[in-house]
Design a protein that fits this description.
The chain is globular. It is mostly helical and about 400 residues long. The longest helix has about 40 residues, at about 70-110. Helices cover about 60% and strands about 0% of the residues.
C-alpha cells in the first residue's frame, strides 16, 4: 500500500497539478467523443477521466509494491528494465534528430528559395531517414540482448509483480506469446511517439516531407495526427527567412533537450525502485529512504517552477525566436512555422493565446504527455512506483 506520508515537494506539486487539472480537464464540448482515446492526454468522452484513468481503457500495471520474490530472477528483470529504457530513449532521440535534419533541409529550400534545392533535399532526406531505420533495427537488437539473452521469463515480464507488461497487451493490440512480441510492441510504440514528437515540434512536418520526396502517410503514419497536411509549400518574406529558420532549429533542439533530460531522470528513479523491489525484497530501507530520496531529488529538478524543464524550454525558445527581423505572427502562419495548426490542441490544454510564451508552454505540455506515454511503454509499473515514492512524474500526471 502507498505510504500515507507525502514529501513537501510531492504535496506542493500535487496541489499545483490539481489546480492545473481543473483548468485543463474541464469539459470542452468540441472534444467530446463517444469513446476515450487512451493515449492522447485528452478527456475525449467528456467524463472527467483522462486516458487510462478512464474505465474505457485498460488499467495500468500495479504489483502492489512488491517484486516477484526471487532475487536471482529479479536481477534479470532489473537488467531487462534498464536495457529497455536505455535503448528506448536512444532510439527516440535518434529518430527525432534524424527527422529534424530532413525537415530542416526541406524548410531551408522553401524559406531561402535556393535553386535546384529540392532534389538535394530529397537525396539528403533519404540518407538521414535511412539512418533512422537503422536506429530502429539497433533498438530491437539492444532489446533482445537485454531481455532475451539470459533474460527473464515471459511470465516474469508479464506479471504485475514483475515488469507488468501484461497490462500492455491490449494497448499493444493483442496478447504476448513470446518475449519477442513484447519487444516488437516497444519498438512500434516508441516509433509512434517519436513521430508525434516530431509533428508537435514541426507542425509543417507532413508537407515538408512530401516536398522532400517522401510518402509520410506510409512511412510515418502517426505524424499526420499532430501535424496534418494543408498543402502549403510557400515561405515567408526573404527578410525574415534566416531568423525563422533559426527559431525553427531552436525549437527542435529544445525538444531533444527536454526529452533527453526528462528520460535520464525518470529512468534513474524507475531503475532504483525496480532494483529495490526485485533484488532486495527483504530490505525495507532500500525504498525508504534510498530510492525515496533519489527520486524526489531527480523529479524535483524537472518540475521546479523556476528551474524546471518547461521553464528552461520556454527560455530557450524565447532566446532563439525573439529576433527583431522576425514577425512573431509567422511562427504561427502556414508559410512560417505553422504553429497555428496546433491552436485547437493548445486550446484543449488551455493555452489559448498565440504569443510565444504560450506556444512554448503548449509545446512543453504536449512533449511531457508523449514522454509519459513512452515511459509507460518501457516501465508499465511506473505509476505504481510514483505512488509508492509519493511523487507525480512529469507527463503521467495527465494520464
Amino acid at each position: 500500500m502507498p505510504r500515507p506520508r507525502l514529501h513537501v515537494l510531492a504535496l506542493s506539486t500535487t496541489l499545483l497539478l490539481v489546480v492545473v487539472a481543473v483548468a485543463i480537464w474541464r469539459p470542452h464540448p468540441v472534444v467530446c467523443f463517444l469513446t476515450e482515446d487512451c493515449g492522447n492526454c485528452v478527456d475525449d468522452d467528456g467524463d472527467g477521466l483522462v486516458d487510462r484513468k478512464d474505465p474505457d481503457c485498460t488499467l495500468p500495471a500495479d504489483g502492489g509494491n512488491v517484486g516477484i520474490g526471487n532475487p536471482v530472477a529479479g536481477k534479470a528483470l532489473t537488467k531487462c528494465q534498464s536495457g529497455i529504457q536505455k535503448a528506448g530513449v536512444s532510439y527516440v532521440l535518434a529518430k527525432l534528430k534524424g527527422m529534424h535534419k530532413c525537415l530542416n533541409l526541406a524548410s531551408s529550400c522553401i524559406q531561402l528559395g535556393k535553386t535546384n534545392c529540392q532534389s538535394k533535399a530529397e537525396a539528403g532526406c533519404e540518407k538521414v531517414l535511412e539512418k533512422v531505420d537503422v536506429a530502429g533495427d539497433k533498438l530491437e537488437a539492444a532489446l533482445g540482448k537485454a531481455c532475451e539473452t539470459n533474460g527473464p521469463s515471459l511470465d516474469d515480464l508479464k506479471l504485475s509483480t514483475g515488469l507488468g507488461f501484461g497490462a500492455e497487451e491490449i494497448p499493444c493490440g493483442g496478447s504476448f506469446g513470446s518475449t519477442s512480441d513484447v519487444l516488437v510492441c516497444i519498438r512500434r510504440e516508441h516509433s509512434r511517439r517519436a513521430e508525434r514528437m516530431v509533428g508537435i515540434s514541426v507542425p509543417r512536418a507532413t508537407d515538408l516531407l512530401v516536398f522532400a520526396g517522401q510518402n509520410p502517410a506510409v512511412r510515418y503514419p502517426d505524424l499526420a495526427e499532430v501535424a496534418p497536411s494543408n498543402g502549403v509549400l510557400s515561405g515567408v518574406p526573404a527578410s525574415e527567412a534566416k531568423a525563422l529558420l533559426k527559431c525553427e532549429k531552436t525549437i527542435q533542439k529544445a525538444t531533444v533537450t527536454l526529452t533527453s533530460t526528462a528520460a535520464k531522470a525518470i529512468h534513474a528513479c524507475v531503475n532504483t525502485v525496480t532494483t529495490c523491489l526485485q533484488t532486495k525484497p527483504n530490505n525495507p530501507t532500500c525504498i525508504d529512504p534510498k530510492a525515496d530520496r533519489k527520486c524526489v531529488k531527480l523529479v524535483g529538478k524537472l518540475v521546479h517552477p523556476v528551474t524546471g524543464l518547461r521553464t528552461k524550454l520556454a527560455a530557450q525558445i524565447a532566446k532563439g525566436c525573439n529576433d527583431p527581423s522576425l514577425n512573431v505572427d509567422d511562427i504561427g502562419s502556414d508559410a512560417g512555422l505553422g504553429f497555428n495548426r496546433q491552436n485547437f490542441r493548445c486550446s484543449v490544454f488551455d493555452f489559448l493565446d498565440t504569443d510565444l510564451a504560450s506556444r512554448a508552454q503548449c509545446l512543453g505540455v504536449q512533449l511531457e504527455c508523449e514522454g509519459g506515454q513512452i515511459v509507460e511503454r518501457e516501465a508499465p509499473r511506473v505509476r505504481e512506483f510514483g505512488a509508492l515514492i509519493g511523487i507525480l512524474l512529469p507527463g503521467l500526471s495527465f494520464l
